TrEMBL record:
Swiss-Prot/TrEMBL keywords: Lipoprotein, Signal
Matches recorded under PROSITE patterns: PROKAR_LIPOPROTEIN
Pfam families, sorted: SusD-like (PF12741)
Protein name: SusD/RagB family nutrient-binding outer membrane lipoprotein
Species of the source: Phocaeicola acetigenes
Length: 521
């Protein structure tokens, strides 16, 4: 086995002992006998070996470890999705917001998630039957983790990872997306057959998200299928429509309630609390605060705390991205994302699914018979309910409030609003309806920055403020990056598959921050 990957099996397996429980040690020798695959009878809740693999995979969809979360999510997706930002002098001015992140940052998601997830995934592949329920579940988890990386880098080894090594050819985004949608479709079919005759949970002790409830995992898989299908709407509309309608029309269907949204518990170590309150490394972005201030959004005080600038008590203001005028101490006066130590973190919100369906209905896809307007309002209502906010009806009926100008408490970075879109639904103008859907979806998906960034790249909405100061090296990138560069180590570790000629084939452009992804072209 590849030594670079093997160490993660050992560390993950030992780290799962606490999850496995005392019942898992009674048949330790039997389950860990060498030279044999796991049998069908061993797929149950007392299988220590499989539990260790699944707990590792679940953990690495969106890592709860604070350093991994910061490097994989907060400093990339949260910043580019304009939910949060940092003082630009932090880390000596080398960060993703101004397209000059140090190499250790650029390669971190690949080295961290790709390796840690692939190891247990491949172990399950080798130990189970390709038609088994656990293999179907593993495929869902793989898509949940890998589509995030593909959307960061623009290409990734996926279809040819058939051994312990990840030093294999990369798939371009179109190939990878089709493969992921195929994996979701086959996994959904397998688990649907299983659920037709059994409601038994699979390995609930290893599953902190759904406690082994395969009905909920199928809903999540269908919702993920809908998300990926919508990514392709602009470049492969017929195929995208087929995949989306399959997901929504499936007998189990997609997530429609907040109770079914996948939540990962972070007891005592919530990532938002850690990044913002404990470490003070992140502040609210000016963009989302200005939209919510303008809309008089009742969720504002649930998302963010007020500023601490003297004389601005009770005022909310985010920090504009890309300013070199700021010091960390100065930036700390801006609104901080609200959060408690024990907050869960969602992988996907029910509101996002409703907005995905609203977009499909806008383009006359069959999204269960509902209109775009009804699904749009369902998305807003689900988000208000998720946050325990009141006033959804009045919010949806407001036809006058628009995003606010950005009023900087320091007086240094103020700028005018970049959108006049209102909340109340209006029929007749498809493009305005799309902006309305994506804008409210963006607000409702908070704090899922990776998804916010992807939706902005795909649609151009919501409209973001330009960078406070434009980096000289990328004068055409006035808001956020189109992607992040490939892991620079791959040019030496995997030279046959990543080099100057393959990069052009994979991306249709340079390996830099400006080359648009396949679904954004």
């Amino acid at each position: 086995m590849n030594k670079r990957l093997f160490k993660y099996i050992l560390s993950g397996a030992f780290g799962t002992l606490l999850l496995a429980g005392s019942s898992c040690t009674a048949n330790f020798e039997e389950i860990n006998r060498p030279g044999e695959n796991i049998t069908d009878e061993e797929y149950g809740r007392d299988n220590f070996k499989l539990q260790s693999y699944f707990s590792q995979m679940i953990e690495n969809v969106l890592s709860p470890q604070e350093n991994s979360f910061q490097m994989n999510e907060n400093l990339i997706g949260d910043v580019y999705g304009r939910y949060m930002t940092t003082a630009n002098d932090a880390w000596n001015g080398s960060n993703f917001s101004v397209y000059n992140a140090q190499n250790s940052w650029i390669k971190y998601p690949f080295n961290d998630v790709m390796q840690k997830f692939t190891t247990p995934w491949y172990a399950v592949k080798e130990s189970t039957d390709e038609n088994s329920t656990v293999w179907a579940w593993a495929k869902i988890l793989r898509v949940a983790a890998m589509h995030r990386l593909i959307d960061m880098y623009g290409a990734l080894p996926y279809t040819q990872v058939t051994s312990e090594s990840i030093t294999v050819p990369y798939d371009d985004m179109k190939t990878a997306y089709h493969a992921m949608l195929d994996d979701l479709t086959s996994a959904i079919e397998t688990l649907t057959v299983y659920l037709s005759s059994s409601s038994d949970a699979l390995m609930p002790d290893a599953d902190v998200v759904y406690k082994g409830d395969m009905n909920k995992w199928v809903k999540f898989a269908n919702s993920l299928k809908l998300r990926l299908a919508m990514r392709l709407r602009g470049v492969e509309p017929e195929y995208a429509q087929q995949m989306a309608e399959e997901a929504v029309g499936h007998s189990i269907g997609v997530i429609t309630s907040n109770a079914d949204a996948p939540r990962y518990p972070y007891p005592g170590n919530s990532p938002i609390w850690k990044m913002c309150t404990s470490w003070g490394d992140a502040r609210a972005a000016a963009d989302i605060v200005s939209y919510m201030v303008g809309y008089q959004d009742p969720r504002l005080s649930l998302y963010f705390n007020s500023v601490t600038f003297s004389g601005f008590d009770g005022t909310y203001a985010g920090l504009r991205s890309g300013s070199t005028l700021t010091s960390k101490a100065w930036a700390d006066q801006y609104s901080c994302p609200a959060g408690e130590m024990d907050d869960d973190y969602l992988w996907m919100t029910a509101a996002e699914v409703a907005f995905l369906k609203a977009e499909g209905a806008l383009y006359n896809w069959n999204m269960g018979g509902s209109t775009a307007e009804a699904l749009y309002e369902e998305g807003i209502t689900l988000s208000f309910d998720q946050w325990g906010a009141s006033g959804a009806s009045a919010y949806m009926e407001n036809s006058t409030n628009t995003p606010a100008d950005y009023s900087d408490p320091s007086g240094k970075l103020s700028t005018s609003a970049v959108s006049t879109i209102t909340v109340k639904w209006e029929n007749g103008d498809t493009e305005k309806s799309l902006e309305r859907i994506i804008t409210q979806k963006w607000i409702a998906m908070y704090p899922l920055g990776q998804e916010a960034w992807s939706e902005y790249r795909r649609t151009g909405y919501p409209r973001f403020f330009s960078l406070a100061e434009q980096p000289v090296s990328y004068p055409t990138l006035t808001t956020v990056a189109a992607r992040i560069p490939f892991n620079p180590d791959e040019y030496t570790n995997n030279p046959n598959n990543i080099n100057s000629s393959t990069v052009q084939q994979l991306l249709g452009g340079k390996d830099d921050y400006s080359t648009k992804l396949y679904w954004a072209k």
